């Protein structure tokens, strides 16, 4: 992982004056990957000419008064992402001067690079906005009893300052708690849709903002896709009606970097999909698709660890020359046998 340590205010200042000036002075010359990540607008990345990996992880330093939620939002990361990348750091009261990892290196989902791709387990939206560019943003999706459906649909109508009609089930629940909900919530600070909404071809499902941005990056909605207010505003202005939206669920991703490194990312599977789901077998199947006809020197023990941890970190799967495998009576004939011998 390439890292760059800056204070939160330092990052804000650098973005304000332009990182080009800092690199021109040589102040950040040791970490050119940071420039590659941040020279484009928020969430934008150049599509690699080869491979399927974008971005680079780095670190920042907590300043007095910062929360991990504040840092996550500033760096285009969701709640679960920042929590899993920093398991020993308090979400709401991190100590000043603590080093925090920003997990910005990602394997693109295995899906057509067209329109919007939403990966539910990853809690991420990808938008292939123009040739050579992909955008990605953290999202919230439906909680277990209100799962966001998978499938291909499209954007339809865009609405600014939408009114919100709480569903009948929500009104019943509120009434049972003695807190009757209104039939219509007008636009304003109390509207959970925020100021921008993009309707989908699936009835009653939207991509929208929120009046509770701290929850972005969690499973908290009733099926809709929630985004940070600044992110949905940006998409609202630029996503044409009729744009394809491919909603997928890939808890494990693997792909090659441009320089031949094999990376894997594993996320917790959605609760409603865990029955009968074998994470390791799913990972093996996805690796097989990535390999094609060749099988590189994979560290299968590391693969098992990645799948068991499921913390979303982009980890190399290739053995190095120094990591010679323990001699075995016979070489495994396929990935399934290889996994079995490292139990």
Automatic annotation (TrEMBL):
Keyword presence, Glycosyltransferase: yes
CDD domains: LysM, YkuD_like
GO molecular function: glycosyltransferase activity; peptidoglycan L,D-transpeptidase activity
A GO CC annotation given for this chain: extracellular region
PROSITE patterns (alphabetical): LD_TPASE (PS52029), LYSM (PS51782)
Active site: 208 (proton donor/acceptor), 224 (nucleophile)
Domain LysM: 58-102
Keyword Hydrolase: yes
Pathway given in the UniProt record: Cell wall biogenesis; peptidoglycan biosynthesis
Compositionally biased intervals (Basic and acidic residues): 170-179
Keywords recorded for this protein, A-Z: Cell shape, Cell wall biogenesis/degradation, Glycosyltransferase, Hydrolase, Peptidoglycan synthesis, Signal, Transferase
Pfam families: LysM, YkuD
Cross-referenced SUPFAM superfamilies: L,D-transpeptidase catalytic domain-like, LysM domain
Highest taxon in the source lineage: Bacteria
Domain L,D-TPase catalytic: 114-248
Signal peptide feature range: 1-29
Example of a GO biological process term: regulation of cell shape
Family classification: Belongs to the YkuD family.
PANTHER family named among the record's database cross-references: L,D-TRANSPEPTIDASE, L,D-TRANSPEPTIDASE ERFK_SRFK-RELATED
Name of the protein this chain belongs to: L,D-transpeptidase family protein
